[in-house]
Amino acid sequence: MSAEATSPGARSRRRGRTSIDLRRLGRAALQGPASRDRLPDAISHVADAHRAHHPDADLLVLGKAYVLAEISHRGQFRKSGEPYITHPLAVTLILAELGAETTTLTASLLHDTVEDTDVTLDQVRAEFGDEVCYLVDGVTKLEKVDYGAAAEPETFRKMLVATGNDVRVMSIKLADRLHNMRTLGVMRPEKQARIAKVTHDVLIPLAERLGVQALKTELEDLVFAILQPEEYERTRAVIADKGATGPGLDTIAVDVRRTLREADITAEVGIRPRHFVSVHRARLKRGEMRGTDFGRLLVLVAEDADCYAVLGELHTCFTPVISEFKDFIAAPKYNLYQSLHTAVAGPDGAVVEVLIRTHQMHKVAEAGVVALGNPYAPVEGAEPAEGERADPTRPGWLSRLLEWQEAATDPDTFWTTLRADLAQDREISVFLADGGMLGLPAGATCVDAAYAQYGDGAHGCIGARVNGRLATLSTVLTDGDTVQLLLAHGSVPETVTETDSGSETGQTHDAAPGPSPEWLDHARTPAARIAIAGWLAANPESLKVPAAAPRPPGAVTAGRRGVANVVVDVPEATVRLAGCCTPVPPDAVTGFTVRGGAVTVHRAECPAVGRMTALGRSPVAVSWGDEAECRVTLYAESFGRPRLLADLTEVIATAGAAIVSANVEPPSEQRVRHTYTLQLPDAAGLPGLMRAMRDVPGVFDVRRAQHETAP
Predict the structure, then answer these.
(1) How many angstroms separate the most distant Cα atoms in the chain?
(2) What's the rounded Cα separation, in Å, for the pair 633 and 582?
(3) What is the mean pLDDT of residues 359-380?
(4) Where are the beta strands (DSSP E) in 260-403?
(5) Cα(430)–Cα(417) distance, rounded to whole angstroms?
(6) Which of 141, 150, 277 lies closest to 208, judged by CA?
(7) How far, in Å, CA of 634 to CA of 91, rounded?
(8) Which of 153, 199, 272, 617 could form a disulfide bond with 411, CB atoms 3.0-4.6 angstroms apart?
(9) Cα separation of 649 and 644, whole Å?
């Protein structure tokens, strides 16, 4: 039973109770004093609103549904004292005014019968067919006696799953909530606040995503009045006093009409007032409100091309505010919305926002999916879909929601995650390298894209390319980006052999260990967060961060002046090439005498040179000898993947370099650092070797060693 329905003296519902004969009751009502083709007077206003959108609609089924609803709810009253039948009538009228088709209106008349009366779904199916039965079942609440505290979240889960197969389910629910919110004043304040909070967190975002702006804006205002009564009253006072805030939109509307008429463009120019919440937001953003801030100009034309013609005239004859221009015709919003948005400055400097759209766009902008009629009506010449019926209005966000809710088996997790998901009110589209496309919430990262594309297979993601450039998984994506996710198929460990002074030690590194806890910080979508949390819970050892081995000192080649291939201006001195920068020909170099009389040679730009000079050490003149062979230390930064080490060492060997030592550090956020000390036959080959190493898939940087150590 809805939050506002009561049945004085009614017994508690019991399963198995003998049901009423709907056929007999319906037939008796329809064959009463009125003729069979005459509707009951109570739904005449619904019929008028329906015929305005659907002139050829069959209204007899509506009369039949009304009679059943009236008889079933007879004796039930709302908290306000009105007969309960006024509620389904009001809900049906809301949908009729939005242009809903007959099947939706039939189901809305019956939407509380199964929940609050003795009517069963089988009886609804027998009388009105499978589609009406499906819609009624979709909006029927689960009973608290069965689900306890989980009844509300599980009811919403049930409705969302039903919406995934037929969006008309949520249309009825939104209209139902709107009428309940309109009459919420009879409830206790604490109950008003609870219902308003759920409406704010769940129903309003759903109305926005389904494009039903007419319902969404009124719901926002009703919630605003309950949850922020002081701000609501302040906003109402501002709206009431708007006549004293300067010239309004009427004057500019006249100028726009004249401009379009002179350009021979047929258009309707009207004023679209802002609703309370919109005025409140504008007041917070702009401070003092002007007359033009309380609404927008709405220009309606016949064809898409006329929209751009209007735009051209406005930008020619008025001063455009370019930063306010948005083209939602060429790139519609994810909720079906299409329109051109612009703003122009009037003669007195007042800025006026203008919406330009066709009449059909306006209908969809107001009613969203409701304006699309029956999405399952057969199209002439089209073949029927096989298996589960496909909903052409099912948007990407709904598909993602239906996927992740299957993994959120706990009601509390589902309820919390649903609210967080719906709070993300913008969506972006990213393109895949193979030509596909993903719809993601604004702020999504490469982690989210990976799980959206591969599901649990994204556990092996090692990196990404965004717009052709290598990027970390934490990279935030923007609308229109092209993303390629790099996966490590399989989990083949690699063994790195590190040689130091003739000794060998084996170090094993798993190239694709699965998601790390840091991924949760980067994930924005529920699907990604649930999958990552599930993997971490199933693999608790992944939470143990291995202690990073101390970084070994850079390889140092020691020897006399001839061995080091440098000539220093200190007779018989031992010469060492500094491990912090590993200079090679033809680097500019300098030297310093250190403890024991040895000379350490650094690259001229090495940080150690500045420190030694600051300490008053005198540099030693150094020059390169005639030998081409040299030793160098390189750092390679990469994403972890199988066979990466093998590919790198193959490139090094192909260049003719000998590996003196190698080290691979434990991965951090799937990034791996390799350190190689190499003996090159010719220093001239070093740039080519570094380029070849950078070209290895997964490697995003190779650089010479240059870190601050004592010289």
Answers:
(1) 126
(2) 6
(3) 79
(4) 268-273, 295-301, 319-320, 326-327, 340-345, 351-358
(5) 23
(6) 277
(7) 71
(8) 153
(9) 9
Catalytic annotation, residues: 115-116
Place of tokens 């017994």: 11
Alpha carbon distance 445, 523 (integer Å): 7
Contact of 102 with 127, CB cutoff 8 Å = no
- Looking at residue 7, its pLDDT comes to 45
Distance CA 593, CA 404 (A): 66
* Distance from the Cα of residue 215 to its chain's centroid: 22
The Cβ of residue 540 has, within 10 Å, a number of other Cβ atoms equal to 8
Sign of torsion over alpha carbons 512, 513, 518, 523: positive
Cα–Cα distance measured from residue 124 to residue 134, given in angstroms and rounded to the nearest whole number: 9
Query: What tokens appear for 98 in the block?
Result: 């939005």
For helices 121-128 and 22-30, give the axis angle rounded to 10 degrees: 40
Output the CA torsion sign for 385, 390, 392, 396: negative
What three-state secondary structure class fits 645?
helix
Q: Which backbone phi and psi does 439 adopt, to 5 degrees?
A: -100, 125
Element (H, E) at 496: strand 493-500
Three-state SS sequence of 180-235: HHHCHHHCCHHHHHHHHHHHHHHHHHHHHHCCCHHHHHHHHHHHHHHHCHHHHHHH
Residue whose token pair is 């049901």: 19
Q: Answer yes or no: is pLDDT of 564 > 60.
A: no
Do 396 and 334 meet the contact criterion of CB atoms below 8 Å apart?
A: yes
Rounded Cα gap, residues 130 and 528, in angstroms: 36
**SS3 at position 46:** helix
C-alpha 369/C-alpha 95 separation (Å) is 11
Q: Nearest to residue 441, comparing CAs of 465, 420, 466?
A: 420
- Mean pLDDT computed over 198-204: 92
State how far the Cα of 522 lies from the Cα of 519, in Å rounded to an integer: 5
> To which H or E segment does residue 454 belong?
helix 446-454
What is each CA distance from 418 to 326, 526, 556, in whole angstroms? 30, 8, 58
Its sign, for the CA torsion 20, 21, 22, 27, is negative
Q: Average pLDDT for residues 88-93, to the nearest whole number? A: 94
Among 579, 573, 569, which Cα is nearest to 594's?
573
Yes or no: say if 479 and 427 are a contact pair by the CB < 8 Å rule. Answer: no
**Any bridge partners for residue 458, and if so which?**
none
Helix (H) or strand (E) holding 232: helix 229-240
Position 20 confidence tier, pLDDT thresholds 50, 70, 90: very low
